[in-house]
Amino acid sequence: MNRLFVQRCVRISCRLLLLAMLSAASLAAEIHVSPSGCDDQPGTPAAPVQTLEKARVLARSLRAGRPTEAVSIFLHPGRHMIRKTVAFGPEDSGTAEAPLKILARHDPAAPAARPLLVGGAAVTGWKKSTRNDRSDVWEADLGPLAITHPFRQVYLNGKRLTWARYPNEDPARPYSGGWAYVDGVRPPMYQDIEEERTDTVVLRAEDARRWSRPQDGEVCIFPRYNWWNRIEKIAAYDPPSRTITLAKKMAYAARPEDRFCIMGMREELDAPGEWFQDVEGRKLYLIPPAGADLASDLVTVPTVNEILHFSKTDHVCVRGLELTCAEEGALRFTDCDHASVEKCSMHDLGYFHGSAVSLDRGKHGTVRGCDIWNIGGHGVSASGGDRVAMERCGHLVENCYIHHVGQFNRHGIGVMLSGVGIRVAHNLIHDMPRCGIFHGGVLNTLEYNRIRHCNLEMEDTGCTYTGGWCGGWHTIRYNHCSDSIGFDNHGRFFVFAWGIYLDESGCGNDVYGNIVERCQVGAMHLHNARENHIQNNIFVDNAGPQGRTHQLSLQTWNDSPNGVFLRDRQPKMLKEYERLMANPAWAAMRGMHVSPADPFLPDGTIMRGNVITRNIFYYPSQPDSRYIRENGVNLQSNTIDSNIVWNGGTAPLKTGRQAFKRAVADLTERIPNGDFSRRLTAEEIAQEPDRTVAAGWRWYHKTFPDLQAEIVTAEGNSALRLPGAFNPEKKYIRNTCIRSAPFALAPGKHYRLSFRLQHAAATGELVARLVCENQGLWKAFGARGFLNRADGSEAATARGGLLCQTAFYLPKDGDADYDARVSELTLQLQFNSSQGWAQVSNLRLDEVQPATEWEAWQMAGADAHSVVADPLLADPEHGDFTLQPESPALKLGFEPIPFRQIGPYEDDARATWPIREAEGVRENPQWLQPVPTDQSQRQPGQP
After folding, report:
1. Band (802; pLDDT cuts 50, 70, 90)
2. CA distance 882 to 897
């Protein structure tokens, strides 16, 4: 009996010893960090170290000794000042079973307290200053902090202050106000200007300044195009000419009326909340905002680019931290596999470059449940994978709340993707200067995201954006996009912004089950997009606040030698296409059977293979808007059908298409010498150089003095032959163009112009249009381009050439687009080709009985099986887009959308719950006030 008792005691003792050893090992794998700790201590809960850098050293030592054990670094609540980036390397990697974790340690006595990581230094010792002869300026000595470099951000209690600037910020108009404008008269945006300087900015006379050290300043400007900005250092300033010279050239010139501001000048320190750094004098000057007390408030300046940087550090998790104050970003992961960020808050950090969180390459990175706001650049950026090999990186951005990013880089995006196989899901993104999600690369998935109030400072953009001949094959499903605002370079809001944008030949995308509402020029824009499937979406009121634009937008490129594709895009796209096709698997991808080397359809257009079916277009509050805008799209090579379209039934459906049911009267004789039977002699032509060989027909903006048209015979009829030519020196009419003598048509009627077209040109088009030029008005009717193409209903390659036709309506008094200046018209024929010839014969002009625009659209080959009817949405005015059981959409195969799954969800990895949405333009619509950029439109004293 005693022996059994002893054996039992030994077994119990061994178990207790084992438990003690495991407990000791567990404690040894924890390192505690507290602002009140000491780096000479062991890092236990009772004796924490003070710095995260020391914790990293201890963690690496533990990992080296026991590589199979997890290591957790616990940051205690309080302010952790990070003067130098804490850099983790491959030696700090964990494993799947034993990861490295950097965690918030929660204090049960103060459950709301959390560790705050500040990537900079506290500035103290404030005293009154006489800088700029003001009584409200304070100064502090930066010498004790050993800061000798310039910084661009200062924070008061974690909130970013304003770098001294001209003009001052305008709180009443935070997006459109607070800008100066480049001197001069704006040229057309797309007009190239020879020898245009890209390193100067010329101030208007009212903005002339006197700066003692202009080299201290930087210029934030939107040069030429209005879909990005630049911030550049100033090299010099010449007061007499009011010319700023930049330290380096920009990609594009600063053109007249481009908006800009100047930052960092001593003389511009003149408003509460502004600051200025005297780098040489090692001083910081500040005008405190209302309510600030520099004796007790915390002022910080950044001393790090990123607060934490992980390089080739695998299996690492950062969770529960708050991070602020850094020049570029909070967390950066470079070539890391299985890195995750959860439950973190990142705010008020970053200048032009960088992101709050960057996943640079690597695999299976995760950003989950984070709150991100007030960021200089992007919220989250993610790249990785191999495009040629179709190797997915597997990154994930999920359940995050991202708002008010891009505060310096106005191309700052909520989530910026440039990789392969990245998933972005269940995020809430709002109040963006540009897109909510910008997804380059291929094979990415965007799903269940709520994106609203985007594009507050840019145009030609969307809530989501992708593009490129070899960019696409994304899945865009179950997202709710709304209020894509748009802001142009004329100071106006509600322009040129869509919900979902497939740009620059974007290919192979599946857009399914999304809700898009309240955008400006369409729920979607397909810009030469190819082989995309747009199905089962609900599009609501996407024609702008006045309801005057259109619900959907399609635009193709063509084979015009002056067009953007042949002139610029083809070589670039072909290079990338050939790179991908080195992998045979790419040949099976949708759309890759067409090479950029020969992409043209028989009609000369490129856009093909798109399928737009089983969608709901609901816009009863915008009955006069167009259902669709399509620019030259081949409707036989793109499928648009089986949709539900409902504008409320109070107005005819508009499509922009014109067609006729029958001819009412032959008006051909109205066109002077419309049969080209009367020709002029060489002597008659010489009397007036703009005459052509056909009597009554003249050159329009005679571009080529030595060229002449010919009258030839075609199938027994006279035909006028125009030679192909191109003059890049001309501003508007760069090709051969002729016009008839003026003639009159009755307003309020519908007309059809038809003719036979023959040509000898590989590319280009012949454009026919009726034009009125009177009292400063230039207005075209029935403009349409033809070459290797004809109207689908009567397309035929007959012996006499292609039968081409265009129909139009001439507005009468009382019509919305009536202009009293419209009087006599001329027929213009413009041959947009640099070679060959085009000849026109059998001109005919008829008054016709019109088809409705919807009938004309169907006659052209679209929406043959679509239904014009109320889709019976439950309560769309209050955001309930579920379908009633009797909905006609269900009969067309529409599938219910899982609305309640869209957006963030409650989860232990969420930084906050419930989410309290930040104030923005939704709560302050008065912020969206236009500001005139043209000096002639400004009132005296207007900023």
Report:
1. confident
2. 8
Measured between alpha carbons, how far is 559 from 595 in angstroms, rounded to an integer? 14
Check if the beta carbon of residue 396 is closer than 8 Å to that of residue 388: no
For the residues of 679-744, what is the DSSP string, one character each?
Answer: B--HHHHHHSTTB-SBTT-EESS---TT---EEEEETTEEEEEEE--B-TT-SS--BEEEEPPPB-
Q: What is the pLDDT of residue 192?
A: 87
Q: Are residues 338 and 193 in the same domain?
A: no
Task: Tell me how far apart the alpha carbons of residues 232 and 498 are, in angstroms, rounded to a whole number.
Answer: 30
Left, alpha or beta for 828 (phi > 0: left; psi -120 to 50: alpha)?
A: beta
Q: What is the mean pLDDT of the chain?
A: 93
Q: How far is CA 631 from CA 193, 485, 770, 849, in A?
A: 27, 23, 18, 24
Which one of 850, 880, 899 terminates a domain? Answer: 850
Say whether both 727 and 846 belong to one domain: yes
For residue 346, the domain's CATH number is 2.160.20.10
Q: Check pLDDT > 70 for residue 818.
A: yes
Query: Taking a C-beta distance cutoff of 8 angstroms, is the pair 824, 717 a contact?
Result: no
Tally of structural domains, the chain: 3
Q: How far apart are CA 229 and CA 201, in angstroms?
A: 14
On whether both 267 and 369 belong to a single domain, the answer is no
- The tens digit of pLDDT for each residue in 297-356 reads 999 999 999 999 999 999 999 999 999 999 999 999 999 999 999 999 999 999 999 999
> CB 196: neighbour CB atoms within 10 A?
13
Q: Is the pLDDT of residue 714 over 50?
A: yes
Give yes or no: residues 107 and 144 share one domain.
no
Indicate the burial class of 683 (C-beta count within 10 angstroms; 0-12, 13-18, 19 or more).
Answer: exposed
Out of 279, 299, 319, pick the residue that ends a domain.
Answer: 299
pLDDT of residue 800: 57
CA–CA separation, 356 and 379 (whole Å): 5
Q: Is there a contact between 454 and 435 (Cβ–Cβ < 8 Å)?
A: yes
Q: Is residue 581's pLDDT more than 90?
A: yes
Q: Would you state the structure tokens that stand for residue 777, as one six-digit string?
A: 């008005």
Residue 619 structure tokens? 């816009």
- Within-domain flag for 254: yes
CA atoms within 13 A on the CB side of 671: 28
- 530/22 Cα distance (integer angstroms): 61
> Which tokens go with 509?
């995308």
pTM of the model: 0.89
Whether residue 352 is found in the same domain as residue 278: no
Is residue 619 in a domain? no
Same-domain check for residues 240 and 97: no
Residue 21 φ/ψ, nearest 5 degrees:
-65, -45
Domain of 158 in residue numbering reads as: 123-299
Q: For 347, list phi and psi in degrees, rounded to 5.
A: -155, 160
| Domain assignment present for 477 | no
Within this chain, do residues 338 and 223 fall inside the same structural domain, yes or no? no
Tokens of 658: 């014109």
Dihedral over Cα of 232, 238, 243, 249: its sign: negative
Indicate which CATH number applies to the domain containing 682: 2.60.120.260
Report the 10 Å Cβ neighbour count for 913: 14
74 shares its domain with 127: no
| Token pair for 212 | 């003692």
The amino acid sitting at 51 is T
Cα 489 from Cα 486, distance rounded (Å): 10
Cα–Cα nearest to 388, from 570, 574, 591, 586: 586
Structural tokens at position 552:
């959907």
Query: Cα separations (Å) of 911 from 32, 104, 254, 437?
Result: 21, 12, 42, 21
In a domain, 913, yes or no: no
Give the span between the Cα atoms of 146 and 282, in whole angstroms: 9
